[in-house]
Amino acid sequence: MSTLEKQGKKFVQKTAGYEVKPHPQSDRLYHIEIDRQVIKDFLAKVKEENISVQHLEYTPYARRIVADYLLQLTGEGFQDVLRGILHDRETGGYTIGLQDETVDTDEYVIFSTALSHLAGTPNFDSMTGKYYARFTVGHTDNSDSYLRQAYRLFTMHTDGTFVDEPTDWLLMMKMKEENAVGGESRLLHLDDWKELEKFSTHPLATHKFTYKAPSSKNVGQEIQRATFFNDNNKPCICFIDQFAYPDTIDEAKYLKELSDSMESDESVVELKLPIGDLVMLNNLFWLHGRAAFEVNPELNRELLRQRGRFAEI
């Protein structure tokens, strides 16, 4: 019996504006399908009101306005569904998209902004100096992290490890993709990880490791973070292998064994995300990474990222 069947598929529903379905690739996720007419009306409203990406960047309240446009078209219950899924420990994630109604990447940014502001408030992204980040993955790369390196595994991690602010949720949207084979998003729900208890009860589980970001992240501070912490009496995780600075060999071995265990776990989901779709996850108990791409000199993928904190309810 799947996770969703065990809990009675509590968020599965169909309304005039959208339908919430079990996700075809994961028992832990939902897929939300917005009615095509709602999407057309949303994009038309944005155009009618002259809402541009630049306007969203320069005028923070406009981000809430586009969220309201979407809410008016889907119905007030839509926000409760989105927040309910993200807060629900049994699931904590969903995919959603624009149903091929547009290929305009500016409209992708606006749509993702509406969704993120229904969930809460995005954090400032120091890498780009905006509330969101757009970045490409191609054949060559000279960056100082694995984010843009196409041909190697981007290991399991959570976001926000090296910043001193809550990072409750993460949104990732596929903007463009050409000549790409592989590169699937790899996801692991903490409760599906076979060795969770082993690592979450280890003497180093609550040790505060130092995290330092590389220069490309534009974050100069050092942060001390415990790998495991409790939220609602359940273990949560804060971890990325690239930016942790252990002080001893034993600490380094703990982190390596933890990372190796997650990478090899049989419950890892390799999510196939179409262009114009996004996945939104609870960052406290979902880990994410990326499979390697097959080598292709013409490889080009562009992604959008937003991450932030939940609204006070």
TrEMBL record:
One Pfam short name: CsiD
GO molecular function (one): oxidoreductase activity, acting on paired donors, with incorporation or reduction of molecular oxygen, with 2-oxoglutarate as one donor, and the other dehydrogenated
Source species: Bacillus aerolatus
Family matches, as SUPFAM superfamilies: Clavaminate synthase-like
Entry keyword set: Iron, Metal-binding, Oxidoreductase
Organism placement in taxonomy: Bacteria, Bacillati, Bacillota, Bacilli, Bacillales
Listed cofactors: Fe(2+)
Protein name: Carbon starvation induced protein CsiD
